């Protein structure tokens, strides 16, 4: 096993066992649900975006596989305290990395520790699991009111 694979495994296990920012936050002004039917992952993300357009608080809950939960957990720690603009840039960068369009070692990015997910591009069945929390973040940031990405009510 390569060193990067080993780090990946450790990070996934750690965040799966002890997810950060678990639970819905109080006073959230953005919310979205994400669902990945291929795997059965389902997460609910709540955010509080402050006056300065920064992500002041973020929490998630739901049911997902280890990769989805670890990705969601790491996402919440990565975007907390960031501007909405940075968070949106990270959504794009994470998606590009997971699909092999961005090389986190050579292309400019804000991903930091999230680089451990770069190996997911070689696991096509897992790409959606890793991206789901980011897709949900994007949906939450773009909803002015409480809403669902699935949109079945509209
Ligand atoms: Zn999954």
Blueprint of the fold:
Elements: H1 3-17, E1 30-36, E2 41-49, E3 55-63, H2 66-79, H3 84-98, H4 124-141
Helix pairs in contact: 1-2, 2-4, 3-4
Bound molecules: zinc ion.
Residues 36, 39, 41, 64-65, 67-68, 129 line the site of zinc ion.
Description:
The protein has 154 residues and is an alpha+beta fold. The protein is built from four helices and three strands; from the N terminus they run H-E-E-E-H-H-H. The protein has helices at 3-17, 66-79, 84-98, 124-141, and strands spanning 30-36, 41-49, 55-63. A three-stranded antiparallel beta sheet has the order 1-2-3, with helices on one face. The longest helix is centred in the C-terminal third of the chain and has 18 residues, at 124-141. The N and C termini lie far apart (47 Å). The model is unreliable at 144-154 (pLDDT under 50). Bound molecules: zinc ion. The site of zinc ion has 8 residues, from helix 2.
Provide the CATH top-level class: Alpha Beta
Using the CA coordinates, give the radius of gyration: 15 Å
Helix content: 40-55%
Global geometry = globular
Distance between the termini: 47 Å
Question: Summed up, what is this model?
Answer:
The chain is built from 4 helices and 3 strands; from the N terminus they run αβββααα. It has 154 residues and is an alpha+beta fold.
């Amino acid at each position: 096993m390569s060193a990067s694979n080993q780090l990946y495994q450790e990070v996934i296990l750690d965040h799966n066992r002890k997810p950060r920012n678990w639970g819905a936050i109080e006073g959230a002004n953005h919310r979205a649900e994400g669902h990945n039917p291929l795997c059965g992952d389902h997460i609910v993300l709540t955010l509080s975006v402050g006056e300065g357009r920064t992500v002041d608080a973020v929490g998630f809950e739901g049911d997902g596989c280890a990769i989805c939960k670890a990705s969601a957990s790491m996402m919440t720690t990565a975007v907390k305290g960031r501007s909405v603009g940075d968070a949106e840039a990270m959504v794009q960068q994470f998606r590009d990395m997971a699909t092999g369009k961005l090389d986190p070692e050579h292309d400019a990015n804000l991903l930091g520790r999230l680089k451990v997910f770069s190996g997911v591009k070689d696991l096509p069945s897992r790409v959606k699991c890793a991206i789901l929390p980011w897709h949900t973040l994007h949906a939450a940031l773009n909803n002015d009111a409480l809403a669902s990405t699935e949109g079945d009510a509209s």
